[in-house]
Amino acid sequence: MIWDSVLCTCSRNTGDSGNDQFGCRPCECDFGGSLNNRCMMGNGQCDCRRHLIGRQCSEVQPGYFCAPLDYYKYEAEDANGRSPTDSALRGKVRPQAADDCIQHLSNQARRHRRHRRVSSSQQYHTALRRIRQLQQTPDVTTVNREHTPGMVVTWTGPGFARVKDGAGLVFSIDNIPHAMEYHIMLRYEPESPEDWEAVVSITSVNLPSSLRCGNLLPTEQLYTETLLHQNRYIQMSRPFCFEPNNRYVVAIRFQRHGVTHRHLTAFILIDSLVLIPKYTELPGFQGSELQAKQNKEDMVRYMCPGLLHDHSHAPPGGHVLQAHLQHLLHHPQRSSAALAERVKDEANSTKQALSASDKAIEKATAALKEAQSNLNNTQNATAEVDLQLLQLEGKQMDIMMRLQNLSAEAEALRNKTEMNRKMAEDALALANNATLRASSLEQSFNNTEERYKELLQKVESIGDSGSLDSIQQKVRTMKSDAENLLNKAKDGIKQLDNLSNTFKENEDRMQKQLEELEDLKQNATDVRDELRKKMQAFSVCQV
């Protein structure tokens, strides 16, 4: 379409027939027949699945067919009939009402006595003969029904299985296409206006192995369903999970509802057993997307669930939707040769896809190993760096502790040195005082000695003995005092010498401690410089 000299084309999911006056319209591709909802911009042709044709992919290619949703039905005529006492049938076996049968047949014969003269003995023997005939009647027989032109067909297959009260059927199922839950439906026709009931047992021969059915226990389920006489089908109260590559045995006992005895004259016609896929589990019906909701609404609008029960004419679109659902279970089927060719093509495609997948898996595995190796190397390098960081932090803490200890020792040494300096100053002052006192004592001693000599001279010149003794005694006392004073002066000089030596030792030790302090300061400076260099190198590695 060209409009105002500008080339206009339809957008995605729309198409145009080329000469349509309405321009672009939605693709409206068939949900089951198309691969997606995209179509050609030129003619609106959708991308169809195999063997489906038409613009919307809603028609089946000639030579193929689409199976309905009740495709998996099992005719009762093909099932195995079982007697009421057969162990394959579940449920309690009811006793046979023999007296009731005799009374019933006797009443029938009595009604005929009004028109014919029959003795009571003949009537009794007739009833017994009829009972024996009924007892010899098979528990399950096949009833064929012909198709009448113009009449609605309400059954499938050749006809029905006629089942006696208390007897049953055993179905064998081994053609499940897809692992999922299936609704179980039973089609029937009663012969009398009374309700029946079915005791159903479903057992899998092998243990379920699929992800869908493998986690469901137990493998056997029992159903007891009422078959109302005014209806023609019954759907079990709950679905059952079937899976491919497994065989299932469905055993059903049929008996009249609400009675305690079984009658030889009571029968019911069973048409077929049907497995209906629970379509809400299929792709396209799951989730809360708009398309899934629309598909569910279409199923209800076209009464598709009702088509499974009623064989009358379907509303427009109903059979199409059923065919779409079958596409999700399996593809349409043709002849065996075509099917084999198709399987071969799909097998080749599958092999190619598997080969490509194996190569992709190998590459992915190699890439994963390389990534794992790189990850391990990175983890090892990270661990080594973390270890170095821990060691560096430990060294840093040790250095900090040593610096703190050195600082504390330097401060204590500084205080001790200051105390020693004060003590030395005090000792020097004491020494000076002692020296002065010693000089004063020496001077006093000299003066005393001179005075002593003068005194001796005076005593000699006096010549008086009495006075001389007294004077000598005083001189001796003064001499003794002078000697004591001299000794004290000597002791003071000696103490002064000791103080001088102590001061000199303290001064030497203080000088040595000052030298050690200078060495400690230099060591601390060297450690700080080395720590700064390591921290700068670590910062470069981190960047």
Concise overview:
By secondary structure, the chain is an alpha+beta fold. The chain has helices at residues 98-113, 120-136, 290-301, 304-307, 318-329, 336-462, 465-542, and strands at residues 2-3, 6-7, 14-15, 25-26, 34-39, 46-48, 52-53, 59-60, 73-75, 80-82, 140-144, 159-164, 168-173, 180-190, 196-204, 220-227, 233-235, 240-242, 248-256, 267-277.
Characterization of this structure:
With 543 residues, this protein is an alpha+beta fold. It folds into 3 domains: 2-60, Tie2 ligand-binding domain superfamily (Tie2 ligand-binding domain fold), CATH 2.170.300.10; 69-92 and 141-334, Jelly Rolls (Sandwich); 382-542, Helix Hairpins (Orthogonal Bundle), CATH 1.10.287. It has helices at 98-113, 120-136, 290-301, 304-307, 318-329, 336-462, 465-542, and strands at 2-3, 6-7, 14-15, 25-26, 34-39, 46-48, 52-53, 59-60, 73-75, 80-82, 140-144, 159-164, 168-173, 180-190, 196-204, 220-227, 233-235, 240-242, 248-256, 267-277. A hairpin with a 2-residue loop joins strand 1 and strand 2 (6-7). Helix 1 (98-113) crosses helix 2 (120-136). The chain is rod-shaped. Residues 1-6, 312-317 and 331-343 have low confidence and may be disordered.
